[in-house]
Design goal:
Elements (H helix, E strand, L loop, with lengths): L2 H18 L8 H10 L2 H24 L17 H24 L3 H6 L6 H27 L11 H19 L6 H7 L1 H34 L6 H50 L29 H18 L1 H8 L4 H35 L17 H8 L5 H34 L8 H23 L9 H25 L5 H19 L1 H5 L15 H19 L11
Helix pairs in contact: 1-2, 1-10, 1-15, 1-16, 3-4, 3-10, 4-10, 4-15, 6-9, 6-10, 6-12, 6-13, 6-15, 7-11, 7-13, 8-9, 8-17, 9-10, 9-14, 9-15, 9-16, 9-17, 10-13, 10-15, 11-12, 11-17, 11-20, 17-18, 17-20, 18-20
Length: about 575
């Protein structure tokens, strides 16, 4: 990587950092200088060229290993072709170009962080959805539907309840404060210790989340290209590089607009798969009319804690996830702050939920279509793809080996789009929290341009290195994509939200009691998520002794119960200055 590219990335991150420290539309000279540097067209072109070179290297490996690739049949398209790679390149170039365009128009650091503060709530809602969907959902929903059953789609029944709670209980509080970091609210009520705890939990949550999604995206790419998993770090680097560049160039406005593009690609790619399968099978014969023999038993409810999935468990888990993510995750709060008022924030959240319903149902139909295709054409599947044991690989394999040339490139672009959307928002939000809740809070903000560049380099490369290293551990978590996601992402979602619940709705909450609740909640989440490795798997089904669906509900309940009891019985340790 050239020195010029490194400095451009650092300057962009420095501009973003400066923004987190402003509360009014005052021009920050350092950020303005960064904007001027980043307007150079050669930066964007150089960065894209490097990214495409990485992809080209992988493509060359694909061609070299094409003779050993697991082709399904003589009629199958032999993996991604030149046209597909060109489409992927055009998409990457367009995102960087969009970042450059919005970077030229910005004149204040506040615009860089929250746009104009009056961004279209429909765009913000789509951005919220694209950020939280990610490659994880794009791959897990079809895979879960194929290999385990369609009950995962019942999660959307929780959306009306989630909307009422978030829109009418949480958003009025947040929009009244207009905070840069959501964790500022914690200090006002419970002191600096709880604020730092919340900020730390968020950083760990997002690092785990990004590590998981880049690992899954890279694994899917190796399936589509028929190459060895040793190329996963290179695919991770290519995806992250493009995401960081266009985020640095254009700030939140570029992120929101590109999220719209990415959602269109996600939705369009899924529809193309359904249309292609329907055409190949001569109609909608793939739609099941009875419970498939490949699916698990998924009852309405079960008192057996090891039952992997139930309808009630699915709805309850997703209700908690929606509420906790909207109320405790800086990624969501940041989007709400980009709107003008509570009404616009509600409209943005409603848009997110509506888009989520539409795309999730389409992805569920993708899974049903692929199951019907696999059942009708078992001889087309390669030896390493099984609709029961490796159902998560069926979707990426079909994309590369069964879709017509060109369409494969569009769908792969959608997959890259989902990964980049999540990476850009995760990096942006982590940077906001680090700068606002740690560096600025304790007066550690760099005061010189050289210091800004150094801090930006260290932070950007540290986040990237942690994500890359963290992704290497994700393969050791047992289960399919859905199970792995629930076991990792839900470890901190509920305990993080519980901090806000105590701060905003429990007047007698004490910092020590809140800390006790957080420790107990996280401990219960870990014990449930890894109950299989800790206590042994069921010998007949291979399931965990306690299903992953209970990670979020139990951890939230334990957290709130123990935190409330501890607050009532323990003496107060708050200083007077920590009170409102």
């Amino acid at each position: 990587m050239s020195v010029g590219t490194l400095e451009a990335l650092a300057y962009g991150a420095s501009a973003r950092h400066s923004l987190f420290l402003t509360d009014s539309c005052i021009v920050d000279w350092t950020a303005m200088h960064a904007f001027d540097c980043l307007r150079n067209r050669s930066v964007g072109m150089l960065a894209f060229g490097m990214s495409f070179s990485c992809v080209g290297t992988v493509a060359a490996e694909v061609q070299a290993s094409s003779h050993s690739s697991p082709s399904a049949s003589p009629e199958a398209v032999p993996g991604l072709q030149l046209v597909d790679w060109l489409l992927i390149a055009v998409y990457a170039a367009s995102t960087i170009g969009l970042g450059y365009y919005y970077g030229r128009k910005q004149r204040t650091t506040r615009e860089y962080f929250v746009g104009t503060g009056r961004m279209n709530p429909l765009l913000v809602g789509v951005s919220l959805f694209a950020t939280l969907l990610s490659t994880i959902s794009y791959l897990s929903i079809p895979g879960e539907t194929v290999g385990k059953g369609p009950v995962i789609l019942a999660a959307k029944l929780s959306i009306p309840f989630a909307y009422l709670i978030v829109a009418y209980l949480l958003l009025p509080v947040y929009m009244k404060q207009r905070v840069t970091s959501a964790y500022e609210l914690l200090e006002a009520r419970l002191g600096i210790g709880v604020r730092l705890l919340g900020a730390t939990m968020f950083i760990l949550l997002r690092l785990i989340w990004m590590s998981l999604l880049v690992f899954l995206a890279a694994r899917a790419m190796t399936v589509m290209m028929g190459i060895d998993p040793k190329w996963i770090p290179l695919v991770v680097t290519c995806t992250g590089l493009v995401a960081v560049i266009y985020t640095s160039l254009g700030g939140l406005q570029a992120v929101v607009i590109t999220d719209l593009m990415q959602t269109i690609l996600l939705f369009g790619g899924a529809v193309l798969v359904i249309a292609t399968v329907t055409y190949e099978l001569g109609g909608f014969v793939w739609f099941p009319t009875e419970w498939h023999s490949n699916w698990d038993s998924q009852p309405l409810f079960s008192f057996d804690p090891k039952t992997r999935v139930t309808v009630i468990g699915t709805v309850l888990t997703m209700l908690i996830w929606y509420v906790c993510t909207a109320g405790g995750d800086q990624t969501s709060v940041q989007r709400f702050m980009a709107t003008s008022d509570v009404r616009a924030a509600r409209q943005a959240y409603a848009t997110q939920l509506c888009v989520s319903i539409s795309v999730t149902l389409v992805l569920g139909l993708v899974g049903l279509a692929l199951l019907g295709y696999a059942e009708a054409n078992p001889d087309h599947l390669p030896s390493h793809v099984h609709i029961k044991d490796s159902a998560d690989d069926l979707f990426p394999w079909y994309i590369a080996y069964r879709l017509p040339m060109g369409i494969s490139g569009l769908v792969v672009s959608a997959m890259f789009a989902a990964a980049m959307s999540s990476i850009d928002s995760g990096v942006n939000s982590i940077t906001a929290v680090v700068m606002t809740d740690f560096l600025d809070r304790f007066g550690w903000r760099p005061k010189t341009e050289k210091g800004h560049v150094l801090a930006a380099r260290l932070l950007a490369f540290s986040i990237g290195a942690i994500v890359v290293v963290g992704s290497s551990f994700m393969e050791h978590v047992p289960g399919n994509i859905t199970a792995v996601t629930q076991k990792t992402n839900n470890l901190l979602v509920a305990p993080l939200f519980a901090l806000f619940f105590f701060a905003l709705f429990v007047p007698f909450a004490k910092p020590t009691g809140v800390l006790v609740g957080a420790v107990c909640g996280i401990t219960s989440a870990v014990l449930i998520a890894f109950s299989g490795p800790l206590f042994g798997f069921d010998p007949e089904t291979g399931w965990d002794p306690v299903s992953f669906q209970w990670v979020a509900p139990v951890s939230l309940a334990v957290n709130l119960l123990t935190g409330t009891i501890a607050s009532l019985v323990l003496p107060s340790s708050r200083s007077r200055s920590a009170r409102i």
